[in-house]
Specification:
heterodimer; A: seven-stranded mixed sheet; four-stranded antiparallel sheet; B: about 120 residues; mainly beta; six-stranded mixed sheet
Amino acid sequence: GAVVSQHPSRVICKSGTSVKIECRSLDFQATTMFWYRQFPKQSLMLMATSNEGSKATYEQGVEKDKFLINHASLTLSTLTVTSAHPEDSSFYICSARRQDSNQPQHFGDGTRLSIL
Amino acid sequence: AQSVTQLDSQVPVFEEAPVELRCNYSSSVSVYLFWYVQYPNQGLQLLLKYLSGSTLVKGINGFEAEFNKSQTSFHLRKPSVHISDTAEYFCAVSDPGAGGTSYGKLTFGQGTILTVHP
């Protein structure tokens, strides 16, 4: 079945550091990838939609200069949290979808980001 | 705009008992419906999906769900649960007709934590 790999699984770093998270589709081409944020005991909130070869579309309230998204190939999207602060600590999850509209999204295992 | 409501934040059950996790949605257009399961510190795994056709959908791990258009519901059921079913379950919808930046976007419910006791 379709597999999405997310790396790293856990990051602990100091305030002010920039952190890059990778999302790879391993056995299919993903024209669209999605980035979610999940706070403890809450649902997933969509941050942005990443389309290969074009700029990401951010949801309302998400700072695009804070959360940089790059989707340079059909199998890789990256999320960079710039100058991270403790309030950015969260569980970040990516998903990837094949080109067909009725194909479900396949999720990575998430990245636990902890900013000290 | 679409929304999803999962009516129970927590559902405790005993092993081998039946369970139903409730999901209602709101949408002005036809929708695709999904149930995902999340184990601690992991991403989401698709349990089942409704796109069209038969309203009773069977998924993995013995789960099934029934799409009820008149009640705008998509409740998840399992006749006999196991300890290993303990996890958080999310109901989600997407708009198959959405174009542009809304294409393929999922809207999630708040999640239901299922705890199976021995």
